[in-house]
Each structure stands twice: as C-alpha cells, then as structure tokens.
Predict the 3D structure of the following.
Amino acid sequence: MKRTPFSLILSAGLVLISAAFVPQAKAGESDHLTEVTFNQPVEIPGQVLGPGTYTLRLLDSSVPGGGYDYVVFADKADRHVYGIVAALPVYYDNPFSWFARPPEHTIITFEERASDSPQAIKDWFFPGKVTGEEFVYRKLPQAQTGSRNGQ
C-alpha cells in the first residue's frame, strides 16, 4: 500500500477548509431587487409604465458603462423586461439627520412634471444603503423644444 505524501493531504485539507469560507449571496441583496406598485402611470427614461406591480434591480456593477449603473425594470415575476435604464450613483440626503443614515425602507422620489404628464421617477434608494440610483433622462436641445417659427 502506497503512502500519500503529507503535502498532498495538507493541500487537500486546506482546499476543503477554504471552501467553507466562500461568501454566499442572497437573492435581492447584491442586485437590490425591489418590488413596487404604482396606481397611476409613471415615466422611466425612454417610456411610460402603466399602473401595476414591477420589479427593479441593479445589473452587475462590473458591466462597463462610463460611471453609470444600470437598473432593470421588469414585471412582477421578473420575467419580462420593460427597460434597462442608465442611472448615476447618488447619496441619500436625509433631511432629518445631520449625517447620512441609510433609509429603513425603499424610497422612490419623482421629478416635477406638467400636470397632464405622468410622474417621472427621479431616484431610487434601497433600504440600508446610503447610496441610491438617480435616473438619467435625455433632454432635448433648446432648438428642438420650441416651435418651428422660433417662438
């Protein structure tokens, strides 16, 4: 019977021990999976979502994007994607605190829009995080926003 070298046994033992310390990700923590329900139409960059329940989640942050994060808007079951939109990281500014404290629940704020337009989602903060996502809306150049007569 051959004897196994001590270094081989030691190496195998170290591999088994180190495997026990590999962190396990839980669904919803790393991607900030959030379920939201809107009772009226809301605008996201590029489109308007009708009333209903949707999921929001961050794409993997290792995706190159020039400083942008990307947020996926999908149906409640997270099977149909309505849009993948660019967002900029933004700090949570708690008006009731002298220093940044993470929100205890999901916060979604809206931009001011004309009364006949749907509310536009401005930013989204995940519970327990001091940074959130501010959505990037494309603004038309000034020349395209006026009438053709220059009025």
Summary: The helical segments are 6-19, 142-145.
